[in-house]
Amino acid sequence: MKAINMKTIMLGLATLALASCGDVADEITSIVYGRNFSPTNLEARVVNRTNVRLTWTPVEGATSYNIEVFANDSLSFQGTPDKTITGITAGQIPYTVTGLYGQTQYSFRVQAITEGDASRDSKWSGAYAKTESEQILYTVKDDDITATSVTLRWPAGEEADLITLNPGGITHTVTAAEVAAGAATIEGLTPETTYTAVLSRQGKARGKIDFTTAIDLGGAIAVNPGDDLAAVVAAAEPGSVLALFPGEYGIKTDEADFGGSLTINKDLSFKSVRAADRAVIKGRIKIEGASVDLYQVVLDGTGTDGGQCFDFSVAGEVDHLNIDDCEVSNYTKGFFYMNSGLVLVKTITINNCLIHDIVCEGGDFFDCRKGVFQNFTMTNSTVYNCAASRDIFRMDNVGDLSNIAPTIKVDHCTFAAVGNGGANYRFFYVRHAGNKITFTNNIVTDFNNKRGFANQKTTDAAPTLSNNYYWNTKNLLSLAEGNSEAISWFDTTGKEVNPQFKNAAAGDFTVGDEDIKYYGVGDPRWTK
Fold it and tell me: What is the largest CA-CA distance in the chain?
């Protein structure tokens, strides 16, 4: 009897279980937890020096969020918060916290809220970030700079107690009168030196600015608009510095009265006297075995004979060509050219330059055919509207210089509408054996030439590529659809992101994308 009863009970339980599984009305379709989950993926990112942008994943069921901010804290959240922000909706994520002090580490915590039911408030999620220095210093004007002094300015009445300048470890105690005026003058500086000035209060920086002292004309040749620049160059001693006062300088040669070619056959430096009003040389530069330095000069090819800006026009060895903080534009064939006998240039350096509207009709952009450079470095520069249907770098195999292994380094540069002609050209057409290419921290937009970065076996097969961003490009990240070219390599680590240039058509490449700005990619002038 006992066994029969047990079978009956088991059968009844099984029947009940089957009935429950088959009842569609009792299926679980949602779960309501007792409280909101804590916000996840919370990130704190400094923007505009003293603001912090908070980003997190919205919590299902939350109607708003609270933020608490603690200064001089590392996720301990002790005491009373410096700021409390409530009522933030999902549509306000990411949320930027403003009104913070510079050079201060802050902890931030975020809580998910359900309106009218405090029991559902989530636990806190935390993150921290350290703000950068404030920037209350104004850009230094030319009128406030001499060869040995500078006047720094900031909003009148803003408190400060110390100014430091480097190199040299120079210190200046800010007086009450200087605070009231928002200006202080520091003497005893070195001519033609780039200084970094820091304005601080109680050990925390309130502003930081770079400036370069003026040329000491006592050691330079003063050149004025209207002077015959070719004659000045011919008369100068090797190693001279030519200090160019503001204005335009034409090259008076047989080729053209205004916009000819200036031949340099001795080591010379050309520098503008005033950075804010730069000298404009309207002509080409022919280099005959000499080293040339140019600083804060504008080179304009309008009206020239259609050749390259720089032409290494005779065989021989050149120690260097340095181009710093210059603007180069409106040359027809290219930027530089080596095709007049065997030329070796040990070092070419281009830094902090704007280069544009060099169409490259009949030549490549950086063009080496019978010559080789040993080291090429291009940094912190912008190139746009150039070489639509030609190579950016070209270096032919020069057997007589086979012992030279050229290096090409391009870092923190912005390329816009360069190589965008859809033609059978590439970024690196480098056939001289042993070359090594480094391409890092750059922005490239609007490139679509069919052979991408490279298609030659002798071009560096394992280049160094890192932290580059691309937009509206073809054949750089991957092979474009319908392209049958055998491209050597792609930047497989590159990111495809719209930099959101402010006004590319007008030459303003100020970056709008927060990630690119945060990581400091491209020419730094556009991400500061």
Answer: 129
pTM of the model: 0.83
Check whether 122 has a pLDDT greater than 60: yes
Amino acid identity at 329? S
Give the pLDDT of residue 7: 41
Residues 53-82 as b/e (b if ≥16 CB within 10 A, e otherwise) read: bbbbeebeebbebbbbbbeebeeeeeeebb
For the record, the structure tokens of 510 come out as: 């100020």
Please count the other Cβ atoms lying within 10 Å of the Cβ belonging to residue 204: 13
Give the closest residue to 439 by CA, choosing from 487, 471, 407.
407
Q: How far apart are CA 195 and CA 100, in angstroms?
A: 28
* CA torsion, ordered 309, 311, 317, 319, to nearest 10 deg: -10
Which sign does the torsion angle of CA 319, 325, 327, 333 carry? positive
- Looking at the DSSP bridge assignments, the partners of residue 58 are none
Give me the DSSP letters along 158-177: ----EEEEETTTEEEEPPHH
Which pLDDT does position 17 carry in this prediction?
41
Q: Side-chain half-sphere of 471: how many Cα atoms within 13 Å?
A: 17
Cα-based angle 292, 381, 390 (whole degrees, multiple of 5): 85
Q: Which of 173, 178, 156, 269 is nearest to 219 (CA)?
A: 269
Query: For 32-41, 317-326, 335-344, 345-354, which range has the lowest pLDDT when averaged over its residues?
Result: 32-41
Long-range CB pairs of 42-47, under 8 A, 24+ apart, other chains included: 42/108, 42/110, 42/125, 42/126, 42/127, 43/127, 44/106, 44/108, 44/127, 44/128, 44/129, 45/129, 45/514, 45/518, 46/129, 46/130, 46/131, 46/132, 47/96, 47/514, 47/517, 47/518
Which token pair is 416? 């816009």
Burial class (CB within 10 angstroms; exposed 0-12, middle 13-18, buried 19+) of 346: middle
Place 2 in a pLDDT band, splitting at 50, 70 and 90: very low
DSSP reduced 3-state for 11: helix
Q: Which of 492, 496, 415, 500 is nearest to 449 (CA)?
A: 415
Task: Give the tens place of pLDDT for each residue, 457-497.
Answer: 999 999 999 999 999 999 999 999 999 999 999 999 999 99
DSSP, res 524: G
Residues in the chain: 528
**Neighbouring-strand partners of residue 183:** 153
- Which bin fits 285, alpha (ψ -120 to 50), beta or left (φ > 0)? beta
The arithmetic mean of pLDDT across residues 116-140, rounded, is 94
pLDDT digits (tens, 9 = 90+) for 240-258: 999 999 999 988 655 555 6
Q: How far is CA 229 from CA 232, 290, 308, 476, 483, in A?
A: 5, 17, 19, 43, 50
